[in-house]
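Hi support team,

I submitted a single chain yesterday and got back a structure, but I'm not sure I'm reading the C-alpha cell output correctly. Could someone confirm the output below corresponds to the sequence I sent? I've pasted both exactly as they appear in my results page.

Thanks,
R.
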Amino acid sequence: MASVNKVIIVGNLGRDPEVRTFPSGDRVANVTVATTDKWKDKQSGEMKEATEWHRVVFNGRLAEIVEQYLRKGSQVYVEGSLRTRKWTDKDGIEKYSTEIRADQMQMLGSRQGMGGPGADDAGGGGYARAPAARAGAPAPRAAAPAPAKSASGFDDMDDDIPF
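Hi R., thanks for writing in. Yes, this is the structure output for that exact sequence:
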C-alpha cells in the first residue's frame, strides 16, 4: 500500500525568516507560520479560537524568495511534507522537532504590505496575487506592462472581464 506525506497550510509568519548560507552556497530559510481556527461554542454561543504554530523549512531557490519577499505578518500558502528531526540540547538531552519541509510556496495578501496586518484582502482573499514558487523553479519575472488604452479609454483586450 502506498503512503502519503502531504501538508498544506495557509497562515501568517510569526517573525522574519531566519536564513543560513552553507559553505557550498546552499541556502535554508526557517519560518514559523501561525494558523488559527475560529468557531462558535455550541454551549455558550461564545466565539472561540485556537492558534497552532508550524515550523517551516525552505531550501534552495525557495529560501532565497522567502528571504527577499516575506516578513513578519506575511500571509503565505505552503505545501510540503512533515519531517521529524532528532537533536541533542546543551544539557545532552535528546529532543525531537517536527517541521514542514516546503516544496511549494505562494505569497498571499497585498504586494505592498506583503500580506502583513491590514493587508488588502478584497477580491477572494488574495490567493491569485503572487505567482507560486516551486523548488527548482526559475526566479519570478517582473509583470508585463499594462496594455495601452484605446481612444475610448478601454483597452482592446477582453482580459478585464471578470469570470
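A quick pointer for reading it: Helices lie at 60-69. Let us know if anything else looks off.

Best,
Support desk
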